[in-house]
Structure formats: structure tokens, C-alpha cells
Backbone:
């Protein structure tokens, strides 16, 4: 099976991360160090914040859930766009809050409408940048304008799971916004660019005032020692990250060009995936699955295809010839 459905890294992880993971095998009978202080310190240095501004989680998903548990409750609300990562809605519901879902615009968030939807009881706004599944991006000037309208009682949860793949110079940096004192939490992951999806490790970069509320709802041993060790080694191998970024950009350009040649209309977007808008992606997703290629069909939205290695992308494009000419 060619797995192009979950935006996993086709290039794997750093060899240093694999070695660090295996070294932890001798200590599997021990609980991890609560809170992952060594990794938090390394991430704090990388992003130029204080270690207590780093919160580790079992993937970025857990950080999103922790934000909801810390800041939402029955009688409150969270604002989010439609056609985006479904965990935002689930996180709000988990905390008993209302999810205010605003229709997307041009396959991305409608910031004007989202700002207008914020109510007195809105404590969180969830925003994926780049957006998942479409790859649409909010630019720095657009995000800063949105933040000016954000009430002091409301936090922007900026999901930057695919941020390392972005090539645009005018793309905002969530960690910089945190350092500037904006009401922003930057949520990131080691699952995508760093290739550690199986180890479930992500992190949040939070304002100083947010640390205590989040720590109150975080379980003490939520991230295992092998995950922490591998993430620490992966963070230190920025050369691997640069190689993966370069390879993804090259193969994504080839993939998008090939999709266009086969009569499809992928939208311009960032991330390690392409997105083809269509009302009913199920037929084409089933067509590819029967040929051993897994993609992600999103009903009413479109088909999302992870960028694979050259051989995998060639196999996908070859299979699509049968779809176009059937």
C-alpha cells in the first residue's frame, strides 16, 4: 500500500533520532522524567523563549485538547473555520463548550467573519496555518490585523503543524508573536517534517501567563522517554530537516504539475500535501485505493494527497491516467 493519506514524511526521520530512540530501550521499565525538561530547554533555546513557556504533548493533538480543557467550559465558546482540522471541534466539545464554525473562504479561514463571530464568552480561536486539508495560508499582515481585533480575554491557538514546509517570506512565525507578547499559542509537532509520527510528540509555545492553567490539566507522564529522546536528537539534526524540505518542495511541484496534466485542478497551497477541490472525492479515492494507493477524501471538500517520494508520486500519476481516460 502506498500511503498518501496522512501526511506522514516519506523521507523518514533523522538517523540520530532513530539511534536515540533505540538507546532508550534499556530503560523501558522506568517512568519518564515528568514534563520532559531537557527537551523543553532545547526547544526554548531554539525558539528563544523560557523553558516554562514550552508544553509537551502526545502529538500536537494533545496540546489542542489541553488548551480546550484549560480555557473552555460549559457556557463558553471557541471560534474556528470550516474545512479545517476536525480536532478543534472535538476539543471544544470535550470541554463542554460551543464550537462556532465559520464558513471558509477561498479554501482558507475567513478572518473577517471569524473576528465578527467572537462573543463575550469566546475564550479560544483555533486557526491552522497552513490550513489542513487545503494548504491555504494566512499571511503575516493578515494575521496581525486579526490579532488587533482579538479581545484580551481570548487566545489565538495557532496550529503550525506544517509551518516548517512553508517557503513564503511573508508567512507569520507564531513563536515570534509569542515573544512579542501577543495573545497567541503556537502549536507544533514532530510528526510531519521531523518524521516522528509514530512517537506522538508535539509541543506548544505559550505566553508566560498560560503555563499554569495548561499544566493544571496536563498529565504528569504524558510523553514517554523514547519520544523525548528521539525528538531531542531530531531537533539537533537541522541538516536532515533542510534535506526533507528541499525534497518535498521539488516533488510537490512535480505532483501538482502532473495532477493538472491529468485534468485535475489542485489549489496553490503550502505543506507536504496537495489538495484537489471536489464535492464528492469518494469515487476517485476508491479508484486509487483499489490500485493500492491510499489518499484522503473529505466529503464536500476535496481530495488530499500527501507528497511521496519520486517513485510513489510517479505511481500515483500513472494510476490517475486510468481515472482520466476511463
Residues:
Amino acid at each position: 500500500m502506498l500511503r498518501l493519506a496522512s501526511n506522514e514524511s516519506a523521507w523518514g526521520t533523522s538517523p540520530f533520532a532513530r539511534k536515540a530512540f533505540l538507546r532508550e530501550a534499556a530503560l523501558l521499565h522506568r517512568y519518564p522524567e515528568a514534563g520532559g525538561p531537557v527537551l523543553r530547554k532545547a526547544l526554548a533555546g531554539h525558539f528563544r523563549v523560557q523553558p516554562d513557556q514550552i508544553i509537551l504533548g502526545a502529538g500536537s493533538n494533545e496540546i489542542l485538547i489541553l488548551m480546550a480543557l484549560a480555557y473552555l467550559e460549559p457556557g463558553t465558546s471557541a471560534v474556528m473555520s470550516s474545512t479545517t482540522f476536525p480536532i478543534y471541534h472535538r476539543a471544544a466539545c470535550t470541554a463542554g463548550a460551543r464550537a462556532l464554525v465559520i464558513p471558509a473562504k477561498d479554501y482558507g479561514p475567513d478572518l473577517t467573519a471569524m473576528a465578527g463571530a467572537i462573543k463575550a464568552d469566546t475564550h479560544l480561536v483555533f486557526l491552522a496555518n497552513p490550513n489542513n486539508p487545503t494548504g491555504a495560508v494566512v499571511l503575516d499582515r493578515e494575521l496581525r490585523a486579526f490579532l488587533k481585533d482579538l479581545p484580551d480575554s481570548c487566545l489565538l491557538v495557532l496550529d503550525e503543524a506544517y509551518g516548517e514546509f512553508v517557503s513564503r517570506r511573508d508567512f507569520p512565525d507564531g513563536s515570534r508573536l509569542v515573544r512579542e507578547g501577543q495573545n497567541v499559542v503556537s502549536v507544533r509537532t514532530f510528526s510531519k517534517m521531523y518524521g516522528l509520527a509514530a512517537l506522538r510528540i508535539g509541543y506548544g509555545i505559550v505566553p508566560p501567563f498560560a503555563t499554569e492553567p495548561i499544566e493544571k490539566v496536563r498529565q504528569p507522564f504524558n510523553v514517554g522517554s523514547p519520544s523525548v529522546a528521539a525528538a531531542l536528537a531530531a531537533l539537533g539534526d537541522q541538516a536532515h530537516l533542510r534535506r526533507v524540505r528541499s525534497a518535498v518542495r521539488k516533488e510537490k511541484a512535480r505532483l501538482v504539475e502532473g495532477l493538472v496534466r491529468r485534468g485535475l485542478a489542485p489549489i496553490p497551497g503550502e505543506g507536504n500535501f496537495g489538495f484537489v477541490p471536489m464535492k464528492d472525492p469518494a469515487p476517485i479515492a476508491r479508484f486509487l485505493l483499489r490500485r493500492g494507493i491510499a489518499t484522503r477524501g473529505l466529503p464536500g471538500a476535496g481530495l488530499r494527497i500527501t507528497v511521496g517520494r519520486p517513485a510513489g508520486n510517479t505511481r500515483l500519476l500513472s494510476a490517475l491516467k486510468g481515472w482520466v481516460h476511463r
Notes: The longest helix spans residues 238-261. The chain has a mean pLDDT of 96. The CA atoms of residues 262 and 320 lie 7 Å apart.
